[in-house]
Amino acid sequence: MIAHLAKRLGILAASLAVASMVIFVVVEIAPGDPASYMLGMNAQPDTVAALRAELGLDQPKLQRYLSWVAGMATGEFGTSYTYRAPVAQMVAERLQVSLPLALMALLLAMAIALPAGILAAARRGRAADAGVIAATQIGIAVPNFWFAMLLVLLFALKLRWLPAGGFAGWDDPLAGLKSLALPAIALALPQAAILARIMRSALIETLGEDYIRTARAKGLTRAQALRKHGLRNALIPVLTIMGLQFSFLLAGAIIIEQVFYLPGLGRLIFQAITQRDLIVVESVVMLLVFAVILVTFLTDIAYAAVDPRLRRR
Q1: 185 touches 151 (CB < 8 A)
Q2: What CA–CA distance (Å, rounded) separates 108 from 99?
Q3: Of 45, 178, 233, 284, which is most buried, counting CB atoms within 10 Å of its CB?
Q4: Domains annotated on the chain, with CATH
Q5: How many other C-beta atoms can be found within 10 angstroms of the C-beta atom of residue 52?
Q6: Phi and psi of 174, rounded to 5°?
């Protein structure tokens, strides 16, 4: 187990190193100069050069890359070019919105998907199965921002149960949860459709295993065999997708945050890109990549702890 853990840690470190280089190169080669953007098109060249020197943009790219990586390793993400504020502080403030939103969306997706997938597998070939398949096809095909607009029209404008946008803060927890309710539902529905499909497929495959047939031969009904023996094994691929979905929900809510005008990480990245705030884009994207790689690493370790066969790979 120790050798397996060391191997996975090495892969994690190598993945982070490669990701940091790719992110830095991609952001740096993007057109546009932050200093010119901040000063405007009519700025004098010497003024632009002075601002570039102040921001450290006149340094060699390798030196800037190494300084950025060293700062990230110590928790110092640098200072925003546009807001002149520490990037770490800006990320911490936006996480107060994005992290609860991702957790709410993931919990809602699980609450919808797991019962739907179990129902479809247990009623395979019947009306309930067809209904779940049709619903999941719609959930996968329809963009989440379209769901968001429908939810706003129904629950905010017509019924007036929930706010149409903005974030009320956590001074009043109930108001904060209400602010995130519609965005969380809009994010959860497509993810729930994917999870339900995977849950159904995994359960159907598990129900065809020999140990399920043995359990049925001992007198268990199909539902009992599914609940007592099939469900736990079928959850393995579902848990993998759930981990990846959490990373996606944390990072991929840019459009939803724009629709609901939420001050989260997605909106921060969008604003930083439009303002050519390179240090913010690099740091936030690297943080999100780290979250994805860490989730994958923890999933691998959990699998190895459960199934000793995986430790030999």
Answers
A1: yes
A2: 14
A3: 284
A4: 1-82+275-313 (no CATH), 92-260 (1.10.3720.10)
A5: 16
A6: -65, -40
Q: What is the pLDDT of residue 183?
A: 92
Q: Is 32 exposed, middle or buried (0-12, 13-18, 19+ CB in 10 A)?
A: exposed
**For the purposes of burial, counting CB atoms within 10 Å of the CB of 242, is it exposed (0-12), middle (13-18) or buried (19 or more)?**
buried
Residue recorded with tokens 């370790």: 301
The candidate with the shortest Cα–Cα distance to 147, out of 107, 192, 178, 106, is 192
pLDDT digits (tens, 9 = 90+) for 62-121: 888 888 888 888 878 888 888 888 888 888 888 888 889 988 998 999 999 989 988 888
Q: Tell if the pTM clears 0.85, that is, is over it.
A: no
- Which amino acid belongs to residue 169? G
Q: Which of 159-173, 191-205, 246-260 has the lowest mean pLDDT?
A: 246-260
88 Cβ contact list (under 8 Å, min separation 6) = 75, 76, 77
